UniProtKB/TrEMBL annotation:
It is found in: Membrane. GO terms for cellular component: plasma membrane. Keywords: Membrane, Transmembrane, Transmembrane helix, Transport. PANTHER family: AQUAPORIN 3, AQUAPORIN OR AQUAGLYCEROPORIN RELATED. It comes from the Eukaryota. The chain crosses the membrane at residues 53-75, 81-101, 132-152, 193-213, 225-245, 273-292. One of its GO terms (molecular function) is glycerol channel activity. Belongs to the MIP/aquaporin (TC 1.A.8) family. This is Aquaporin-like protein. It holds the Pfam family MIP. Its main location: membrane. It is a multi-pass membrane protein.
Length: 341
């Protein structure tokens, strides 16, 4: 019965749900019987569109609280009563956790183009779905930016007016456009330094995500997984918010498009660092997940715990043991495997 929701999908969705394989029965109220009409409706829904909607919604849940906390801090010009890097980090932390809790059971909970590409590379996620997931993720961030702009437009306009009176463009590191996107703080550091900061921050987050999603990891419970991933992101916000970080192409590009709509081309051209915030997280995440796959992953633990199987079944596993001297009598073990099957 646990596999009914995968029926007729022709592939296995991979993502956060890898660590959410078992669910406790929860009694939160008496549910009325499910009608056949309801089942027919759900069966007729296009699965890919549901997954895209879940990815877009999840990114919205992740980005919206983060940029809202940033907006409150920015429009009040750093007044600690309205926020700090602590509140911004916590907003992203809980936003990511709520995104996973709300949407990961439908799409796998990627919420980041780099994560989608890594799942396609390392874990067999269908490449044909990757472009659709990425488009949905970018749209989710774009929608979050538009909603926030609608809610904060008066405060943003007032801040832009104050900056204009001082001869300062609103699309700068301290302006209202910085609510939406990465604007590296003015400093003497060049693109190489900015690249390294973004690379290692995204690598840190990617490595934590990959470790949390390893079903053989004994230190992560299903209920803790969303919050651990959120905490990893919050730690990087707390450590590097003084000169800004991005870590996610969808979050950066979607919100950057909103900033460009309202504040002009400076959303892309300011200091010409836009490509770092947008794209560096992809090779960084590949570096982190590759390190985990090639150095830290123990596939035998996954097989032993029932989360995976050898590509040749039990016979392939016995052959592996014999090849490396872990068992002595292959014939006896092969007969045992056949008798069990």
């Amino acid at each position: 019965m646990s596999d009914l929701h995968r029926l007729n999908t022709q592939d296995i969705e991979l993502g956060t749900t890898q660590v959410l394989q078992r669910h406790l029965t929860r009694h939160v109220g008496t549910a009325r019987p499910i009608s056949q009409r309801r089942l027919d409706f759900e069966f007729a829904r296009p699965r890919l569109l549901r997954e895209m909607a879940a990815e877009a919604t999840g990114v919205f849940f992740y980005v919206y609280p983060g940029i809202a906390a940033t907006a409150a801090f920015t429009v009040e010009k750093g007044n600690p009563a309205f926020g700090s890097s602590l509140t911004i980090g916590l907003a992203y932390c809980f936003g990511i956790a709520l995104a996973i809790i709300t949407c990961a059971s439908t799409s796998g909970g990627h919420f980041n183009p780099a994560i989608t590409l890594c799942f396609a590379t390392w874990q067999g996620f269908p490449w044909r779905k990757a472009p659709f997931y990425i488009m949905a993720q970018i749209f989710g961030a774009f929608a979050a930016g538009l909603v926030l702009m609608a809610q904060y437009h008066e405060q943003m306009a007032s801040l832009s007016h104050d900056l204009a009176g001082s001869g300062i463009d609103g699309a700068i590191a301290t302006g209202p456009a910085s609510v939406f996107i990465t604007y590296w703080q003015p400093s003497g550091n060049g693109p190489g330094w900015v690249f390294l900061v973004e690379f290692f921050v995204a690598s840190f987050i990617g490595l934590v995500i990959w470790a949390v999603l390893d079903p053989a990891n004994p230190f992560v419970t299903p209920s803790a997984a969303p919050f651990i991933i959120g905490i990893a992101y919050a730690c990087m916000v707390w450590g590097f918010s003084s000169f800004s970080i991005s870590t996610n192409l969808a979050r950066d590009l979607g919100c950057r498009l909103v900033a460009a709509m309202f504040y002009g081309r400076n959303a892309f051209s300011y200091k010409n660092y836009w490509w770092i915030g947008m794209f560096v997280n992809i090779p960084a995440t590949f570096f982190a997940t590759g390190y985990y796959e090639l150095v830290l992953r123990d596939s035998l633990d996954r097989i032993g715990l029932g989360h995976a199987q050898h590509e040749d079944g039990d016979e392939g596993l016995v052959t592996h043991f014999a090849k490396h001297g872990l068992i002595r009598d292959v014939d006896i073990d092969m007969r045992y495997v056949r008798s069990k099957s």
